[in-house]
Each structure stands twice: as structure tokens, then as C-alpha cells.
């Protein structure tokens, strides 16, 4: 049995141990070794193809696709071994002199690899292709980098979308009728190599500033799979390769951003950043500007009434009710992890306006709860999953409480005056939530008092994370979620009653790793460590063992399917919550004050895990933790950077001793007089 006790507050470096030289975690890193990625295997060929294996190397050997007019198309289906993103580069050893064409389709999964890509940019607007990329191959040796554009214009002919997120590629000798006479559907094409110029952040072992390793190899692999998924979304914002639905941003053009998905939408959304940002700061904080750029861009587009757009899509007008709160939370996280107080100073007026002007204007003043509906002019608004719900929704209100409390602290630290007001309002909303939305019969929070009775994963989870749920309600709500939302591939949005909102949508079988991260975190906060780990294994284990593997999906649908078929992104940063969950709760390190001036260390020990180690990078230096459980009990080595202050909690048995640097500070339920205080800790 483990219990937690505050044992020490330390200043400066309190252990000489350094984990910096440890390399045992390198084995889990997924990124390709170089930005030029070669295929890993040929899956299949059809019709007249010679020497397809030549595509696996970059030497002078080549594959031949050959076709007489009356024959079926020869094709090669290639596996790159891993979901990847960037520009495909084809090297041709030459071709017949009639400009034979190749057509190329891309997919993240074999299931959706067909005669067209699972998704291309043209599918979202500014259409120049109908799902395949085309190229007319010259007779002489040549190279083609698949970028967006057409070999002829007015009208557009022989077009390609360029830049794809995919694992599988199908190449075949063919031409569209509409592209005649520039390209022929017959002849011979000699392909020497097909490679990918990987454009996103290449997270090799040398680039990781933070890392994690424990006894459980599956958990370790999920951590690095999450890191890779997120890195695939750290890329430049380039007008030809972002979402085509009025998403241009002169401010972001050419800058690194944190996209929502590698394949699509390729637009940075601030809700997604709520998870992806944390993953970024815990792995590659040197790239944190990718989050800052997005937050600043959205701040610059704050509406007159204080509302903040979720993303640049539709010229910053997509109406979401919850995302301005995610902007607040994401700004909080950004400052907390990076210590960038200049950013805080710059956006502070934006923060005040969204919390003090916008949200009060959509509050039902009889209850004090945020209210989505025509009554507050927000009937047409959506949220992270476009759930068709209205009224005083528990999720919006609990997220409001969390955001108010978080930035209230930050305002205090920065010497601003708004903190007390925000904390008061958080308390008012908390009381109203508990008075109006607790369903005593179910033992869980209602989704809303408007519409059919149903209970949701989001509101119940964030009620706990925000501290709004008293401990008995927290335990009860988590029990309810476990019993009523459980699927073989994670926990769903809703219990079965949630299907009444839209009987065809399958809300009671749909799982988002995004919002599940908050449930998993709530389980850790409620000391239900094994339940948190069990859910991680159920959900991430499902994605790890189903195509494309490794990268984490935008959403999981009925029976564990891709919830929107081939359109689903299989590499979505918002699904990487397993990484912050393991670093924050199993390694146990969390910043508690701007830039890690203060942080807490409180490891949660999963059943069967007897050791964990790793580094959490901070602007002051590395925080290193190395803990193990053995016959001598629980032992934790901490490396804390100079100038920081750590609050350390360790699990301790009812009867036993807690020592710090060989000094006993707690024994059999008693704090030892004078110990456990800052002054008594030997600083080495
Ligand atoms: C990593 O560190 C741990 C403990 O700090 C040590 O036992 C292990 O041998 C190290 N591994 C390597 C490869 O350095
Ligand atoms: C990267 O290089 C190492 C050593 O050079 C090799 O063992 C490993 O398989 C390579 N990984 C990939 C993904 O190519
Ligand atoms: C298949 O292609 C090769 C190489 O271009 C060619 O020599 C051969 O005649 C073709 N076979 C058929 C049956 O068309
Ligand atoms: C790969 O793309 C980068 C830009 O992301 C570019 O600078 C580089 O030249 C490209 N490499 C090749 C071989 O095309
Ligand atoms: C609630 O009161 C605020 C002022 O505190 C006001 O701005 C808002 O419009 C009121 N809400 C509604 C729905 O009338
Ligand atoms: C988790 O355990 C800690 C320490 O044992 C306790 O303070 C806290 O209230 C518990 N949390 C919940 C939600 O039960």
C-alpha cells in the first residue's frame, strides 16, 4: 500500500546523480535516421513489372513498368514501414519517348489504399486533382519532386497535390483522359528510386531534451510513439500545403507551427495544442516556438466581443464554444513550461478580455453557468467533437473552472490583480455545477440539463482535474465512466444514453485519445493508478497493433475502426496524451510555477512497475528522476536545477520511514521534528 507525504522542499541541486549519459531509451525512438527516407518493402506488384525491389535502394538499378495500350496497368505497392510526411522524390532512369504517365496514390493504412489516396489536399478545396498525383515521365533520366502544381495550366493538366502524410504508396503506369495529349497511358517507365523528403521535426535520440523509461516496455514504446506522432506535426506553415479552406495566415507563413494532423487538416488548432503542446515541451522544448506562433496568431484574431478563433480555417471564423478556453489553458501551459513571461505580458489583455468579456456574455446569470444555445447567441457553435449539445454543459463549465483557476495563479505570480476575481468566479461556477449537474441516481455529472439524460466522459473527467468534484463524487464518477463508457479500444464520449443526441453518430462507441487523456489524468489524480494504466494499454495498445501502427489516430469508431474511414488522420498530436501522462504522473514531475521555478515530484507507481527514470527538460536545466522499488522500499534520486524549488512526495507504507539524504524525516505516521524543512536538507 502506498500513501503520499510531503517530505521535502529543496533549493538548488540536491543530488549529484545525472541521467544525461543514459542511452537505454534510444531503442524506442521511432523517427527515421535521416530526412531522406527509403521504402522498407514492396508489398505487391500487378501486371508487367520487372525488378520492383530496385526501389528499396538508391543505387543505379531500376524497376520497369511496361504497358501495351490494351493491357491493364502495371503497378507497385510500397510500404515505407512507418507513417511519414513530406515530399516524395522519384528518380527515373528514363522512359519510352511517348511521355508515359505515372499516377500515385497515398494512404496511411492498407485498408484505404486504392485507386485514389485516402485523402489529398484537393479533397479539402482548391481542387487540382481527384485523389491521385500525376506525372509525365521524360525519355531522358530525370527526377520528380512531388510538389503541388500542374505540368500545364489553363486548363490544368497533369497535376499533383504534393506533400503527403502516408505509410503506403501505390504507383501505376497510366494517364487521365483529360491530360491527353501531354501524357500517355502506355509505354515503359524505369524508376530507380522512390524516397521521401521528410519535412517535419526529425526527433532522433540526439534531439530529445526530455525522455522516459520504465520497467514496462509497452508504456515506453507508447511514450516514444507519441513523441514521433507529435513531431510529425511540427512543420512549416506554407500556403500551398496547409488546409485549403481559407486558412492562409500572413503571420504564420513560413514559420514552424504545431499542426493538428500530418495528413490533414494541416491547420493548427488550439484545442489540439492543449495536449500536443505538453508533448512538445516534454520532448523537444527547443521547438516550442511552434506552439507560441499559433497562440500569438490566434490572439491577433480575437473578436471584438473577446471570443478567440480555434484556428485560421474559414478566415478565423469557425465558431467553437470551448476553444477560447483551450487557448487560455494552452497559453498557461506554454508559460508554465517555458517561462516565457514576455509572451504572458503580450497576451495578458487578450486573456482578460476572453475571461472577463466573452464568457460572462454567454453565462446564464440565474445559475452562473456557461450556457451554449440560442439564449446566449451560441446556438450555432460547436466544440472539439461537434457534439450536438446545448444548455449548461458540464464540460464547458468544468473547463472554465480549470482555466480560471490556472490563470488566476499565474496572474498572482505575475503581480496582476485579476487573480482573486477569477478564483471567486471559479468557486461560483463550482458551486453551481455541483448544485445543478450532479446526477445522484447515476453517481456522475450530467452532460447537461437540456436534452436527453446522458453522461459524458469530458465533463466528468475535467470536473476532477479542475478540483470541482469533491473526492467522493470523483471516485463515483470515475467508476461510472469505467462501467458505462468502456470499449475494447478505450473509453467512449458517452454512455449509451448519449446516442439519443444523434442516433446515427455512434457517440457511445467513439473514442478520442484527446479527451481520454483528461480521464486518464483524472484517474492518476484520484490515485487510481492501475485504472489509468489499464485504460492507456487498452486504447494505445489498440492503435499500436492496428494499421498504420506507431502513430496515434484522431479518433476511433465502432469496433475499433478509423472513425471517419480513410479521411481520419492517423497521426494526430492531440492523441499523444500518454506522453504527458507518463512524464507527469509516473515519472511524476510537474511544473507548479512559471518556468519550473517550482515543481513537484510525485511518482504514481503502477502495479508491476518497479523502476522508472527520465528527464523533464526545464528552462533552468534538466529535472532528472530515477526511482525504484525493492526490498529496501522506495528509493528516488532527484536532480534539480539550480534556482528551482521542488516539492517531493513519495509513496510510503503505513509503518515505515522516509529519509532524505540518509536523514529520517518521517517515521510510522509522524513527521520528525525539524526534518523535512528546507533548511534541514543537505544540498550536495
Ligand atoms: C541508465 O541508468 C540506470 C540507472 O540510473 C542504470 O542502471 C543503467 O545501467 C543505465 N543504462 C545505460 C545504458 O547507461
Ligand atoms: C538507424 O541507424 C541505426 C544504426 O546506424 C540502425 O541500427 C537503425 O536500424 C536505423 N533505424 C532506422 C529506422 O533506419
Ligand atoms: C514486360 O516488360 C518487359 C520490360 O519492359 C518487356 O521486355 C516484356 O516484353 C513485357 N512483357 C509483356 C508480356 O508485355
Ligand atoms: C528536402 O526538403 C527541404 C525542405 O524541407 C529542402 O531544403 C531540401 O532541399 C529537400 N531535399 C531534396 C533532396 O530535395
Ligand atoms: C450575464 O451578465 C453579464 C454581465 O455580468 C452580461 O454581460 C451578460 O449578457 C448576461 N448574460 C445573459 C445571457 O444575459
Ligand atoms: C489521493 O491520495 C492523496 C494522498 O494519499 C490524497 O491527499 C488525495 O485526496 C487522494 N485523492 C483522491 C481524489 O482521492
From TrEMBL:
Keyword Repeat recorded: no
Domain Alpha-L-rhamnosidase six-hairpin glycosidase: 259-487
Keywords attached to this entry: Hydrolase, Signal
Gene Ontology annotations of biological process type: carbohydrate metabolic process
Alphabetical list of SUPFAM superfamilies matching this protein: Six-hairpin glycosidases
Molecular function terms, GO-annotated: hydrolase activity
Signal peptide: 1-20
Entry's transmembrane regions: none
Protein name: Glycoside hydrolase family 78 protein
Amino acid at each position: 500500500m502506498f500513501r503520499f507525504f510531503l517530505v521535502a522542499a529543496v533549493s538548488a541541486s540536491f543530488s549529484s546523480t545525472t541521467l544525461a549519459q543514459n542511452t537505454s531509451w534510444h531503442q524506442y525512438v521511432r523517427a527515421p535516421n535521416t530526412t531522406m527516407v527509403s521504402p522498407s518493402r514492396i508489398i505487391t506488384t500487378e501486371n508487367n513489372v520487372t525488378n520492383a525491389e530496385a526501389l528499396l535502394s538508391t543505387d543505379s538499378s531500376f524497376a520497369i513498368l511496361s504497358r501495351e495500350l490494351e493491357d491493364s496497368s502495371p503497378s507497385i505497392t510500397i510500404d515505407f514501414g512507418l507513417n511519414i510526411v513530406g515530399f516524395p522524390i522519384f528518380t527515373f532512369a528514363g522512359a519510352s519517348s511517348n511521355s508515359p504517365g505515372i499516377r500515385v496514390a497515398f494512404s496511411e493504412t492498407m485498408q484505404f489504399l486504392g485507386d485514389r489516396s485516402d485523402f489529398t489536399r484537393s479533397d479539402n478545396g482548391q481542387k487540382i486533382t481527384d485523389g491521385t498525383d500525376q506525372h509525365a515521365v521524360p525519355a531522358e533520366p530525370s527526377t520528380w519532386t512531388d510538389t503541388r502544381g500542374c505540368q500545364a495550366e489553363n486548363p490544368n493538366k497533369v497535376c499533383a497535390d504534393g506533400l503527403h502524410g502516408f505509410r503506403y504508396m501505390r504507383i501505376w503506369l497510366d494517364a487521365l483522359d483529360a491530360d491527353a495529349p501531354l501524357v500517355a497511358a502506355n509505354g515503359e517507365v524505369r524508376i530507380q528510386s522512390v524516397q521521401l523528403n521528410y519535412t517535419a521535426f526529425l526527433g532522433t535520440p540526439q534531439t530529445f531534451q526530455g525522455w522516459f523509461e520504465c520497467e514496462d516496455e509497452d508504456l515506453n514504446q507508447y511514450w516514444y510513439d507519441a513523441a514521433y506522432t507529435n513531431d510529425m506535426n511540427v512543420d512549416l506553415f506554407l500556403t500551398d500545403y496547409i488546409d485549403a479552406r481559407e486558412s492562409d495566415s500572413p503571420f504564420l507563413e513560413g514559420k514552424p507551427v504545431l499542426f493538428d494532423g500530418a495528413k490533414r487538416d494541416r491547420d493548427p488548432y488550439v484545442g489540439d495544442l492543449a495536449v500536443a503542446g505538453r508533448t512538445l515541451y516534454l520532448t523537444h522544448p527547443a521547438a516550442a516556438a511552434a506552439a507560441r506562433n499559433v497562440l500569438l496568431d490566434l490572439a491577433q484574431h480575437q473578436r471584438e466581443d473577446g471570443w478567440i478563433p480555434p484556428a485560421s480555417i474559414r478566415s478565423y471564423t469557425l465558431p467553437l464554444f470551448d476553444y477560447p478556453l483551450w487557448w487560455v489553458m494552452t497559453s498557461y501551459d506554454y508559460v508554465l513550461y517555458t517561462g516565457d513571461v514576455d509572451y504572458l505580458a503580450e497576451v495578458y489583455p487578450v486573456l482578460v478580455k476572453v475571461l472577463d468579456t466573452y464568457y460572462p456574455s454567454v453565462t446564464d446569470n440565474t445559475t452562473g453557468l456557461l450556457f451554449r444555445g440560442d439564449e446566449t447567441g451560441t446556438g450555432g457553435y460547436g466544440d472539439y467533437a461537434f457534439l450536438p449539445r446545448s444548455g449548461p454543459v458540464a464540460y464547458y463549465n468544468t473547463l472554465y473552472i480549470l482555466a480560471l483557476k490556472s490563470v488566476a495563479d499565474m496572474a498572482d505570480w505575475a503581480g496582476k490583480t485579476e487573480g482573486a476575481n477569477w478564483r471567486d468566479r471559479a468557486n461560483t461556477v463550482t458551486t453551481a455545477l455541483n448544485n445543478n449537474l450532479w446526477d445522484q441516481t447515476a453517481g456522475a455529472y450530467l452532460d447537461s440539463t437540456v436534452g436527453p439524460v446522458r453522461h459524458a466522459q469530458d465533463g466528468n473527467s475535467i470536473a476532477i482535474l479542475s478540483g470541482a468534484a469533491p473526492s467522493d463524487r470523483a471516485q463515483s464518477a470515475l467508476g461510472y465512466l469505467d462501467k458505462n463508457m468502456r470499449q475494447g479500444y478505450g473509453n467512449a464520449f458517452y454512455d449509451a444514453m448519449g446516442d439519443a443526441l444523434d442516433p446515427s453518430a455512434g457517440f457511445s462507441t467513439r473514442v478520442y485519445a484527446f479527451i481520454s487523456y483528461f480521464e486518464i489524468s483524472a484517474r492518476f489524480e484520484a490515485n487510481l493508478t492501475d485504472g489509468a494504466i489499464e485504460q492507456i494499454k487498452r486504447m494505445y495498445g489498440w492503435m499500436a497493433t492496428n494499421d498504420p501502427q506507431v502513430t496515434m489516430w484522431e479518433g476511433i469508431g465502432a469496433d475499433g475502426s478509423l472513425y471517419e474511414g480513410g479521411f481520419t488522420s492517423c497521426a494526430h498530436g492531440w492523441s499523444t496524451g500518454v506522453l504527458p501522462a507518463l512524464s507527469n504522473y509516473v515519472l511524476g514531475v510537474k511544473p507548479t510555477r512559471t518556468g519550473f521555478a517550482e515543481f513537484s515530484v510525485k511518482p504514481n507507481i503502477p502495479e508491476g512497475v518497479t523502476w522508472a527514470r527520465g528527464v523533464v527538460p526545464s528552462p533552468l536545466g534538466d529535472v532528472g528522476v530515477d526511482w525504484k522499488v525493492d526490498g529496501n522500499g522506495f528509493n528516488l534520486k532527484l536532480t534539480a536545477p539550480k534556482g528551482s524549488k521542488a516539492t517531493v512526495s513519495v509513496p510510503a507504507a503505513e509503518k515505515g520511514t522516509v529519509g532524505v539524504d540518509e536523514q529520517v524525516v518521517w517515521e510510522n505516521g509522524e513527521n520528525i521534528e525539524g526534518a523535512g524543512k528546507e533548511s534541514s536538507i543537505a544540498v550536495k
